[in-house]
């Protein structure tokens, strides 16, 4: 799946209206793809990954400490006007509160996983710092992702009392997650209809995302096979702005450089096939993680599998919402 996803992105870059820009935009994806195969080759046990995960948690902790300093007005390296809305959302070292929130969610999952080791129990002290930073970023997508990950863990745990066979336990977990997710979506739509007369919640941030998703859908419909090419979204998206976006971005003299939805972004960059591969990658990672957690004889590997599944769920849901 990883190779196919990169191959589709590469083909879309070659066929892009601006191939040089698209190829340059694929640099990080190429690095991540290579790192994936390096990790597959050198990491044999969950313990091999522990030092890397510890460093990631500590780095996020330092970034959150920096955010706390920003909160009280202490910042020796201000990157923008401190009255800017983005600055008030405690961007820390990420330049934007939205990006910070995308990293805090995974850091919370990893920190909880690492505390299984007695010598790493101190990482629990980072959780209040992470949660406080996430709260002050005012980003709701990460909370939705963390809620989905927590629900996945609870459903998987309870399924063991009903299903002894690992495949049935995994399948039951996925089915319950889909049913609960669908029910919650319908419930939120019903409450929103009662409150606003529309089936979706309404506020400024959400309206901006809805508008972006609407423009993204129009772009995908126009070029569904290979998309517009990686990195080309900010060049062509203004052609599809809604009136709401036109007024908002004109007043602020700004624009979005991505659609704030990884699934739509994949389709925009490299076509519907790329979006399908991205979705397949997220779902397969969850399935493989749950299967390992349900079937492996080694308790350490079972815990690792559950962490991978929950982490993939958090990243996938947060990347889908992004508000």
* Separation, N- and C-terminal Cα atoms: 28 Å
Oligomeric form: single chain
Biggest beta-sheet profile: none
What is the N-to-C succession of helices and strands? Answer: HHHHHHHHHHHHHHH
Supply the number of helical segments: 15
Strand content: under 5%
Helix-strand category:
mainly alpha
Q: In angstroms, what is the radius of gyration?
A: 21 Å
Report low-confidence residues grouped into runs of 5 or more.
none
Q: Into which percent range does the helicity of residues fall?
A: over 70%
What is the number of beta strands? Answer: 0
The average pLDDT score comes to: 88
Categorize the overall geometry: globular
Give an overview of the whole structure.
By secondary structure, the protein is mostly helical. The protein has 15 helices and no strands. It has helices spanning about 1-15, 20-25, 25-40, 45-70, 85-90, 95-115, 125-135, 140-160, 165-195, 205-220, 235, 245-250, 260-270, 270-295, 300-320. The longest helix is centred in the middle third of the chain and has 31 residues, at about 165-195. It is globular. The model has no long low-confidence stretch (mean pLDDT about 90).
């Amino acid at each position: 799946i990883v190779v196919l996803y990169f191959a589709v992105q590469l083909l879309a870059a070659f066929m892009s209206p601006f191939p040089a820009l698209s190829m340059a935009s694929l640099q990080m994806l190429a690095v991540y793809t290579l790192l994936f195969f390096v990790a597959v080759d050198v990491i044999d046990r969950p313990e091999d990954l522990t030092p890397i995960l510890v460093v990631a948690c500590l780095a996020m902790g330092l970034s959150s400490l920096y955010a706390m300093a920003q909160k009280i007005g202490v910042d020796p390296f201000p990157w923008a006007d401190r009255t800017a809305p983005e600055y008030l959302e405690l961007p820390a070292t990420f330049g934007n509160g939205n990006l910070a929130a995308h990293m805090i969610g995974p850091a919370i999952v990893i920190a909880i996983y690492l505390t299984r080791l007695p010598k790493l129990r101190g990482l629990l002290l980072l959780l209040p710092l992470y949660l406080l930073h996430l709260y002050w970023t005012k980003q709701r997508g990460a909370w939705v992702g963390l809620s989905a990950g927590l629900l996945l863990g609870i459903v998987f745990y309870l399924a063991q009392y009903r299903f002894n066979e690992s495949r049935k336990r995994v399948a039951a977990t996925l089915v319950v997650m889909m049913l609960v997710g669908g029910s919650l979506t319908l419930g939120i739509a019903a409450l929103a209809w009662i409150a606003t007369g529309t089936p979706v919640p309404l506020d400024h941030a959400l309206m901006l995302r809805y508008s972006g998703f609407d423009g993204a859908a129009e772009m995908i419909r126009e070029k569904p096979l290979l998309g517009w090419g990686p990195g080309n979204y900010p060049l062509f998206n203004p052609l599809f702005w809604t009136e709401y976006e036109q007024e908002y971005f004109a007043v602020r003299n700004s624009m979005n450089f991505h659609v704030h939805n990884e699934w739509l972004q994949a389709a925009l960059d490299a076509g519907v096939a790329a979006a399908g591969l991205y979705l397949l990658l997220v779902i397969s990672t969850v399935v493989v993680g749950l299967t390992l957690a349900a079937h492996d004889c080694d308790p350490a590997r079972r815990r690792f599998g559950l962490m991978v599944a929950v982490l993939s769920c958090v990243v996938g849901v947060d990347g889908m919402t992004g508000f």
